[in-house]
Amino acid sequence: MIVPAIPCDGVRLRVLRPEDLDDLLACYNDPDMRRFTTVLPVPFTREHADEYIHDLAPRMFAAGGGLYAVADPVTDRLLGGVGIDRLQPGRAQAEIGYWTGTWARRRGVATAAVRALAGHAFDTGLARLELLTHRENAASQRVALAAGFRPEGVRRAALPGHDDARDDALAYARLADDPPGPVERLLPDLPGGELTDGVVTLRPLAGSDLAFYAELHSQEDVVATTVPPVPPSPEEMRRRCAWSASRWLAGDRADLVIVDTATGTPTGEIGLYYQEPGTGQAMIGYSMLAAWRGRGYPTRAAQLLSLWAFAETGIARLIAGALPTNVGSQRVLEKAGFKREAYLRSRLPGAGGRRSDDVQFALLAEDLLTEGPRLDG
């Protein structure tokens, strides 16, 4: 079966060849790839690689899909792979997947390949392509969004995990008549990966922050101001750290660590929760380790996050709440420029089945334009 190559911007899609065997072997034994591709044989041997080249890939093409090598257009070296599988002719629908070798990452290789193969699939009669990825695979989610695939929801336990476990899948899809180009994100990346005023630095929460996060959320007063006021389980804390990048990409929330710039020490957290994209309203919340309180860090963090939100997103209004007894948090918000707007009775679930009142504050974009930022702690 003759399979024509598919030219595209920066890469070339072609059939797998025997000379790709060593690179294919290296790719499929890469720990990062194996973490999310649990169906691969363990270990992945030269015999397996040879079978993929001479048997699996031809069978996928014969079934109406395909497994393409993503090659360098100049050297023809294997950079990764992209394929279409699970074809449903009656629905004109299929599933697309991809991977990239360690030597070719962060160069837009996967995005270019997915765009090219998706375009080819639509030109040859498909109407819908689905893309499934693990929650913790933020790199794959970035490719999906950049290639024009829109998030559609979560498929519970849809993917085989390690040790007979099942993992949720984030579902993305692109239709033949979707507009070209990447999907617009509600919450873009931070410029340079962080925000700083020279005293504090805000950076995204990551899986490696679990020990710090567990320490912070074991403090009694932090738990008491959590909604609901129940300490998270170890698995919940692991997920909050590991899934932070995914939630940011989805536009749901941006979780950040407040770092002491001079020492690089994590001191607290601040989060932005995009509740109402339709109205341009989001909420912020924060907490600090006891040893770092009294230095004005949460005020600085709130100001930095507010400036970024108003300048880089569609957010026009930020809200925040505090318990009536939490005078310290109310002072933080007032110093950050928020204005008290309401006292909401029994708004929040409290301890022991009781309800708690909530003091509501708000900050508008025009407030900052009028008063300017006040980064004096």
TrEMBL record:
Gene3D superfamilies assigned: 3.40.630.30
Any one GO cellular component localisation term in the record: cytoplasm
Example of a GO MF term: protein-N-terminal-alanine acetyltransferase activity
InterPro entries: Acyl_CoA_acyltransferase, GNAT_dom, Ribosomal_N-acetyltransferase
SUPFAM superfamilies listed in its UniProt record: Acyl-CoA N-acyltransferases (Nat)
Keywords: Transferase
UniProt cross-references to Pfam families, sorted A to Z: Acetyltransf_3 (PF13302)
Segments forming domain N-acetyltransferase: 11-177, 200-366
Superkingdom of source: Bacteria
The protein, known as: GNAT family N-acetyltransferase
Organism expressing this protein natively: Couchioplanes caeruleus subsp. caeruleus
